[in-house]
Write a sequence for this structure.
């Protein structure tokens, strides 16, 4: 029947036994479960109590990273040239806002300029970690800061605080050499990962800034410091409910960096450049310290700290004088006649007699072409000393193939060209000096075999610093410092110390691979340029500092083919004018400082724009030297007078008409006495 049980027991004992077995099985399982539960509770409450207490505390309290103050950058005298200043800012925490769009709408009523960056703000907020504050606007005025705090209760997820922002007190004076800081980009993160390194968590902090260009980039890790943290108590949703002051960790500021630059000289250099474009480098010829490294025109690096507007950046980028380019180390220029110093040294190394004379008639015929001298009427008989003094092109046209282009390149490398220097900053250009091998490699893909052959006629342009000769202002300063030192292959130094640790001196270098008497011949030619009345920059080189004299060399580098036209550039556009150069050192009898000035498209003759500026910068350098100031109390020697016929010399301003005495003329024609010994110093022209 359907109502009957499906299991039948034959007797009562069998039914009872089955019940007991089931009871024991379920009872045992229950007891086992209870035992396991009690054991687990005992383990949690007794054995692992401390571990879970720690985890609970970590969930209750967490650290919010605090970026460290960036290390200061100072000049050689302790003047801060890159520091930090207090800055009010407003931040948004996405997870504490009820509606981000609505919050930004309300914030836009208080800070209208945030509406212009609305899309960028939303993108940054959405990309930030959970409960991480994201800066919306920095450098709030006191009125804006007070307004945001006044309406804080109506702005959930919005807070205003004060932090430190990078500040450059001298604006554009140090912009290229120091660089600037800016927000971390995806490219920065990718570059670190591509090197197989772990990206520091600090880089993901929205308030952190990374170094861009110059010293800020080169020493970024040293300047960063160590981040700290604020220990805060949070609820189950991660919202801050209190701050644990005692558990917070103070951030460690970045290391202090001291440069060899002098703020007074740097500012003066940018001032005398005015609206001109170019670069200037000043070096101490004794130890290689760079006192000045200026590129003009410049820009204000403070614009980049908070994010530069695109229209401002476009204006800087598109301006023809290129203010964003560092023309001291990253711009290459033809050196013009300043390169004749190197050519002269190459001729001496090749065995050319410096007393051998070449008659300059205003041109030099080579093959089917006539190479013109800058002075149409010619200079007459010229030896090496006179050729340097008057910058006679024909002398170097006539002599250059005695040395050959390979020798000129070899000497150029040894004296300081065609290389970059470890001064702590990148973006340097090596420049070029051609040779036979250089041309063959440069035109290796040209199907015409003649394009890989060097012709002697090409050496003529190289000899006067044209053609494919390209140098930087830093290289010109290094070579001038080596000519002035005349013993050591001085290396430039920009970083004086990092975190109190001094960097190696530029004087710890080997000797120059040239005989002292060869260097002295070239140096005395530079002395004549600036101190003989027939010198190419006599009038523009008078320092007016007692008996302290300056030696130098002018240079004019053309950027276009004149053909049969005039070299005068008064009526041509800026981009077609010649480059204007001047290199010098002072004092001539005990050299201390070397300078190189390049005026981009400055016009005809190196003394018209470059030499006067070099003189003013050199005066500032010498007036800051206590030894030089003490020396200036000495009575100056009598000034020689100039004749009317020297007014036509390259770069010489028309002097007052006078008659040069026979004794003065004899002294200016006399070749200098060669000084030998471990440290030859220049003497005043006799």
């Amino acid at each position: 029947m359907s109502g009957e049980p499906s299991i039948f027991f034959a007797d009562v004992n069998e039914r009872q036994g089955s019940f007991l077995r089931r009871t024991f099985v379920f009872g045992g399982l229950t007891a086992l479960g209870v035992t396991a539960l009690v054991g687990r509770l005992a383990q949690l409450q007794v054995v692992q109590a401390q571990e879970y207490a720690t985890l609970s505390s970590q969930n209750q309290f967490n650290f919010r990273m605090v970026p460290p103050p960036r290390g200061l950058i100072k000049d050689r005298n302790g003047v801060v040239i890159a520091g930090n200043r207090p800055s009010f800012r407003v931040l948004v925490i996405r997870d504490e806002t009820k509606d981000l769009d609505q919050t930004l709408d309300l914030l836009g009523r208080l800070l209208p300029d945030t509406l212009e960056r609305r899309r960028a703000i939303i993108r940054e907020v959405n990309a930030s970690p959970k409960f991480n504050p994201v800066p919306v606007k920095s450098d709030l005025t006191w009125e804006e800061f007070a307004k945001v705090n006044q309406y804080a209760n109506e702005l959930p997820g919005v807070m205003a605080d004060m932090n430190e922002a990078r500040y450059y007190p001298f604006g554009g004076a140090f912009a290229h050499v120091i660089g600037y800081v800016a927000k971390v980009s995806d490219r920065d993160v990718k570059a670190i990962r591509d090197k197989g390194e772990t990206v520091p968590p600090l880089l993901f902090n929205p308030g952190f800034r990374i170094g861009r260009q110059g010293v800020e980039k080169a020493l970024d890790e040293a300047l960063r410091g160590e981040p700290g943290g604020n220990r805060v108590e949070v609820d189950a949703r991660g919202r801050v409910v209190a701050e644990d002051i005692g558990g917070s960790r103070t951030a460690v500021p970045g290391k202090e960096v001291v440069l060899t630059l002098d703020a007074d000289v740097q500012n003066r250099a940018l001032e005398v450049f005015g609206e001109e474009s170019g670069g200037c480098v000043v070096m101490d010829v004794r130890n290689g310290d760079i006192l000045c490294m200026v590129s003009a025109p410049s820009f204000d690096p403070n614009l980049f700290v908070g994010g530069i507007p695109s229209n401002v950046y476009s204006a800087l980028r598109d301006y023809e004088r290129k203010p964003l380019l560092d023309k001291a180390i990253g711009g290459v220029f033809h050196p013009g006649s300043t390169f004749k110093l190197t050519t002269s040294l190459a001729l001496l190394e090749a065995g050319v007699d410096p007393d051998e004379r070449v008659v300059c008639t205003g041109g030099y015929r080579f093959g089917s072409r006539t190479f013109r001298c800058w002075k149409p009427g010619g200079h007459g008989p010229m030896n090496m000393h006179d050729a340097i003094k008057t910058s006679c092109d024909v002398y170097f046209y006539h002599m250059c193939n005695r040395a050959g282009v390979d020798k000129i390149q070899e000497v150029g490398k040894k004296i300081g060209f065609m290389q970059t220097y470890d001064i702590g900053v990148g973006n340097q250009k090596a420049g070029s000096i051609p040779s036979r091998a250089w041309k063959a490699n440069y035109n290796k893909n040209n199907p015409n075999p003649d394009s890989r052959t060097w012709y002697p006629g090409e050496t003529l342009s190289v000899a006067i610093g044209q053609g494919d000769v390209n140098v930087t202002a830093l290289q010109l300063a290094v070579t001038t410092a080596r000519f002035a030192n005349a013993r050591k292959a001085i290396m430039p130094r920009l970083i004086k110390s990092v975190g109190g640790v001094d960097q190696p001196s530029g004087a710890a270098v080997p000797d120059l691979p040239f005989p002292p008497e060869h260097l002295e011949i070239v140096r005395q030619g530079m002395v004549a340029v600036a101190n003989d009345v027939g010198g190419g920059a006599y009038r523009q080189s008078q320092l007016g500092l007692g008996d302290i004299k300056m030696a130098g060399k002018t240079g004019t580098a053309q950027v276009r083919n004149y053909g049969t036209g005039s070299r005068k550039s008064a009526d041509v556009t800026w981009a077609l004018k010649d480059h204007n150069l001047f290199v010098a050192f002072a004092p001539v009898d005990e050299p201390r400082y070397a300078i190189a000035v390049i005026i981009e498209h400055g016009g005809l003759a190196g003394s018209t724009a470059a030499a006067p500026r070099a003189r003013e910068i050199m005066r500032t350098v010498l007036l800051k030297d206590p030894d030089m100031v003490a020396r200036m109390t000495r009575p100056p020697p009598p000034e020689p007078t100039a004749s009317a016929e020297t007014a036509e010399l390259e770069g010489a301003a028309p002097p007052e008409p006078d008659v040069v005495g026979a004794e003065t003329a004899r002294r200016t024609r006399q070749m200098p006495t060669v000084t030998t010994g471990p440290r030859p110093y220049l003497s005043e022209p006799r």
Notes: Residues 63-259 form a domain with the Penicillin-binding protein 2a (Domain 2) fold (CATH 3.90.1310.10). The radius of gyration is 37 Å. Residues 643-686 have pLDDT under 50 and may be disordered. The first strand starts at residue 61 and ends at 66.
